[in-house]
Amino acid sequence: MPRLVMKFGGTSVANVERIKNVAQHVKREVEAGYDVAVVVSAMSGKTNELVAWCKEAALAVSGDPVYDQAEYDTVVASGEQVTSGLLALLLNKMGIPARSWQGWQIPLYGDDAHGSARITGIDGAGILKGFAERKEVAVVAGFQGVHKETGRIVTLGRGGSDTSAVAIAAGLKADRCDIYTDVDGVYTTDPRIVAKAQRLDRVSFEEMLELASAGAKVLQVRSVEVAMVHNVRTFVRSSFDDPNNPKPGTLICGEEEIVESQVVTGIAYSKDEAQITLRNVPDKPGVAAAVFAPLADANVVVDMIVQNVSPDGKTTDITFTVPSADYARAMAVLAKEKETIGYPSIEGAQDVAKISAIGVGMRSHAGVAAKAFKALADRGINIRAITTSEIKFSVLIDQAYTELAVRTLHSLYGLDAA
Amino acid sequence: MPRLVMKFGGTSVANVERIKNVAQHVKREVEAGYDVAVVVSAMSGKTNELVAWCKEAALAVSGDPVYDQAEYDTVVASGEQVTSGLLALLLNKMGIPARSWQGWQIPLYGDDAHGSARITGIDGAGILKGFAERKEVAVVAGFQGVHKETGRIVTLGRGGSDTSAVAIAAGLKADRCDIYTDVDGVYTTDPRIVAKAQRLDRVSFEEMLELASAGAKVLQVRSVEVAMVHNVRTFVRSSFDDPNNPKPGTLICGEEEIVESQVVTGIAYSKDEAQITLRNVPDKPGVAAAVFAPLADANVVVDMIVQNVSPDGKTTDITFTVPSADYARAMAVLAKEKETIGYPSIEGAQDVAKISAIGVGMRSHAGVAAKAFKALADRGINIRAITTSEIKFSVLIDQAYTELAVRTLHSLYGLDAA
Q: Does B82 contact A75 at a Cβ distance shorter than 8 Å?
């Protein structure tokens, strides 16, 4: 029997009526002959309610909202437990044999980084036995696992259910993993900004990884990483389609399955970054470490980093971006390290945006980025910083120009629909 | 170190503020030197919400609200998971080492009667290790366990958390089990009916068992059974007491701990029963089985049964009571069996009440019940049926006389406070 993993997020299981709709999607695939494992998130809003209780409990003791992450995991994992039970109950009632599986029942093992655990292993034997002996649908509570030694519940952090789904698809050697979302696939850019954005039929793992990192919110970065490493063919499709006549969505797959690569596949943007520039930093060995080590210690994730060759060999400017949410913390850390780093002045900007163009075709085409710089300049858009990778380039600009820049690049690389 | 099990029900953990109050009770006992396991129910209202979703899911498929009990267990057990995590989080935050334990983590094993499983075993090793190595409070999710072979979550049914607590006290060989409720102990009768009702300092297991069976709602029958079999000294006390200065409550213990037994310890009543009388049933072997076997098959629990010696040796009347909720079902079952049983007429009454007097002293005192029959007759209360056991007698009367009868017997046996 071919095997299929399906995944439904919080809005797809928001209430019993929506869960019934999910059951119809599962029924279709069972009737098509698949052995199905379906991964579900908590009903939308439930996780927030549970997190709020944890914060309230911590604040009831002291003014500091920090709490025991292992107990947090115990509390929030209950959300997925409820959804998995309800969907299995519904499927059984519809005459489709089904059984719910919590992370500890599978078991899906995670490390002890409670709140954002990494998956360390999956034992698919129980689920496969259900497939073989009873043609039983496995309804898996996403987002959660268990620590092998302590026996405690761990959760996988933001986007954890996507990661659960792809990892289970890898563990079960599934033929396919379908991620159902509230959009019907991956687009060349955000359709709310560019009306002529097009749904992509296929996109490579590498491109999807860069798109997700660059701000496209359709899939979490971690799940794409797992899909890439284990070569899991993953579809992004809509849970709002008619269950009896759904659209195929976008296939995320290896490059070998994509016949003709585009130079640029998509344009992504992120407004969630802030820029920090240190002026006239002494240009000597170890200065970069002096800047970025204390930020890493404070758990600030630095994204773009630009350091030019020093004109006089004595001092240089260092520019980098951090998540907006960490901006104040980063500035405080750097203020404390002013003497050690030895910078005379610091500048910050929060009204910035990062625009990225992604495409595996960039590898074999020269001048892809240069075209963009010219087009942006022609529209009076000032570029603050530039970074490039093998299949992506990103520019940091004033946030007010975000939409104009996205539309400009989308047209420039021929992505507009006819 | 002495060991203590504490149990808090739904109203005691209704919100974060109440859970903090529970943490204060736990803190007091930890500081008094106890190793503590605390068993918690779901926040009040949560279980009902979860049960309602299960019903809604079943009804979304067909008009019949029957559902898969194993999935029901998975859904409803999440309620206790949340409370256990929140209480452990709060205790840790207060500087008291604590860890939550779900049924499967302990493990507390149950049989496969999903929805009303019986406890088949408890392995206390993990909890005891936490006591010994880290002086760690064990916060146990009540009401739930795991099936040893299937690895599935089971729940223990109504009053399951009381039963969890007493069973864990037995498993850990605890010195004591404190059941915190919204009343401050066991009373000689319902104080809402008799203002002069008195809180009992001590009551024997056997008496408590009969009181609970006879309608006193302070503890579930199953938990008293477990306490009696394993000789767990159990206190019923109030969670609304000042955590720093609580009252002792009522001790439920073996008879050997009660120096002087009362003839009658308490008066209980139940309005949740209905009476059924079959007239002129043929008085021949097998007729009782013909009546009660079909009722048992339909899961109707029969309580009082009265069958008099036949006056003519040919026919007799059989009277019995069933839970009010099952009355219509019982009547339907009996209508179907009319030919087989061979009764010419049937009578039913729903406006009845059962009044019971309980006391271990009855064993050694004659005429205890006879006194009651006279006192009730003196007040014009007609007795429909009577049953007696070693330490209890019950009378079935018109429901309108409930309060009068309870007050009459409470005075009669010298239970009124001075």
A: yes
d(CA B331, CA B335): 6
pLDDT digits (tens, 9 = 90+) for B51-85: 999 999 999 999 888 899 999 999 999 999 999 99
* Sequence-distant contacts of B123-129: CB under 8 A, at least 24 apart: B123/B171, B124/B168, B124/B171, B124/B172, B126/A151, B126/B101, B127/B37, B127/B101, B127/B172, B128/B172
- Asked if A5 and A172 count as a contact pair (C-beta separation under 8 A), the reply is yes
CA dihedral over A155, A161, A166, A172, signed as positive or negative = positive
Instruction: Tell me how many degrees the CA angle B278-B284-B290 measures, rounded to the nearest 5.
Output: 55
Q: Collect the ranges in chain A with pLDDT lower than 70.
A: none
* pLDDT tens string B327-373: 999 999 999 999 999 899 999 999 999 999 999 888 888 888 899 99
pLDDT tens digits along B282-291: 888 888 889 9
The long-range contacts involving B146-150, CB below 8 angstroms and separated by at least 24 positions, are B146/B103, B146/B104, B146/B107, B146/B108, B146/B109, B146/B110, B147/B109, B147/B110, B147/B111, B147/B112, B147/B117, B148/B107, B148/B109, B148/B120, B148/B121, B150/B112
On whether the pTM is more than 0.95, the answer is: no
Number of Cβ atoms within 10 Å of the Cβ of B320: 25
Question: Closest-CA residue in chain A for B147?
Answer: A105
CATH class of A3-181: alpha beta
Contact B134, B97 (CB under 8 A): yes
Q: Judge: B86–A53 Cβ closer than 8 Å, yes or no.
A: yes
Fold (CATH) for B3-259: Carbamate kinase (3.40.1160)
Residues of A with CB below 8 A from B75's CB? 81-82, 85-86, 89
Q: Which residues of A touch B123 (CB under 8 A)?
A: none
Tell me if chain B has a CB within 8 Å of the CB of A51. no
CB contact under 8 A, B71 and A53: no
Residue A329 sits at φ, ψ, to 5 deg, of: -65, -40
Distances (CA, A) of B128 to A171, B29, B106, B138, B230: 36, 17, 10, 9, 19
